[in-house]
Automatic annotation (TrEMBL):
The keyword NADP does not apply. It comes from the Bacteria. It holds the Pfam family SBP_bac_1. Coiled coil: none annotated. InterPro entries: Bact_solute-bd_prot1, SBP. Residues 1-23 form the signal peptide. It comes from Bacillus glycinifermentans. This is Extracellular solute-binding protein. The keyword Cell membrane applies. SUPFAM superfamilies: Periplasmic binding protein-like II. Keywords: Cell membrane, Lipoprotein, Membrane, Palmitate, Signal.
Amino acid sequence: MPKNVKKWLAAPAVCLFIMGCSANETSHQQEKDRQKNEIRIMAPLLSPESPGENSPSLKALEAYTKKQINVTWVPNSSYNDKFNIVMASGDLPHAIVVTDKSPGFIKSVKAGAFWELSPYLKDYENLSRADKKVMKNSSINGEVYGIYRARDLIRASIIIRTDWLNNVGLDMPKTIDDFYEVLKAFKEKDPDKNGKDDTYGMVVPKWMGLGNGSPWDIMQTWFGAPNRYGVNENGELVPDFTTDEYMKALFFFKKLYDERLINRDFAVMDSAKWNDPVVKGKAGVIVDTGSRASQIQSALEEKDSGNKDVIDVIGSVEGPKGTYTFPTSGYAGMIAIPKASVKTEKELKEVLEFLDNMNDKQAQIIANNGVEGRNYKLENGAFSSLEKNNKKLLYEHEGLAQFSMGIPEQRHYIEEQTSKLFKHRQQVMKEGEKIAVFNPAESLVSDVYTQKGAQLDNIILDAKTQFIIGDIEEKGFQDAVELWYKSGGEDLMKELNQLYQKSK
């Protein structure tokens, strides 16, 4: 074959080869660009449905942050289990919601699995303005391994049916004794006026709690008990359950149980059904976050339009040592950045930029309110939701709030409220900051607790339940405290006190 023919035949092959290389390089570059613009997140899902890939709210958030947002949604009930599985797999997202300082998270931090963020936050407009106290609370022994998700500092409230109060001739309680009298009247004085002995005072679910905001935690502070840990006269941390004030609260709880002023099944009652006895007219009081009051009020109005403004709230009642309330930590979990997926400082800064942008007003609005004209409308600057009779619209964005941090403040729209209940809830939050009992060991993380915390907590929680229902007396409870110390509690307090002195 003539050389010129060979050349002519070879040319397309070379050309095709070059084109192929070029196409591969282009494809590779496109993939790199795509990955650069992608942010992968793992977050808990509390709604029945997650925002789908085509959610208008998700698309709007992507347009605003200039990132392709891919979320792995995990049901909240199994989130901690999934977290541990994902950490073990090594196939991690760029950002992961951490719901609490669980042993699994602490172990991962100590193994160097997450970026320590303290040195970087000053470079970002929103993140640099995070609340220092809340940042410390969310830290691990003073080091920041996640951007906290802000929550109201004061949420604890006493929720009461005021129509029942009127029917039994009582005012809102001001002291612990008043509170007891209200519960007693709701049991004995036919507050619903149906002529039957079928009511009781307060609903309590199986959520016993140990410094995490359960009804028992809240009511203990009324007696002057510490929030999880107190500080003794020597400046040392001591567990709350070793104080006299705690025991006085425990005897009060037992009295409520013995006199049937609380539900007999509290130790097994599912917290998902917590509102039901109040809505169904069986009980008149709940001690929990103020937001529950609005849920109950709405449910009562749906049942009967005549039930308008029957639910109200107060923040606390006066006890033997003054008036106190139980605060939150100021946050509900945090967003951490794994080193396995974010390998360099450059990549870390890109993720932090995304998280910073998520705190901008517009991003907060999209994540919490959705898209204007679809999920809400603005008329003369006044916000109103378009989702009231359309849960599908709500689910388009509701899950996105799981990675909306609200730093330095919540900037999304809130429908204007004029009700007495809303105003009183705002008042409770404002006044509560002056009387809040803070946990002095909030930021301290102990190796002993990481290893034995669940076992130690269960010793006290079981004894607490047994004491309230009468299975053990005070000596039995003190025996459980002794067992707690012997099972690792002594080592825990020694370690916590070392960390506490160092932190000061």
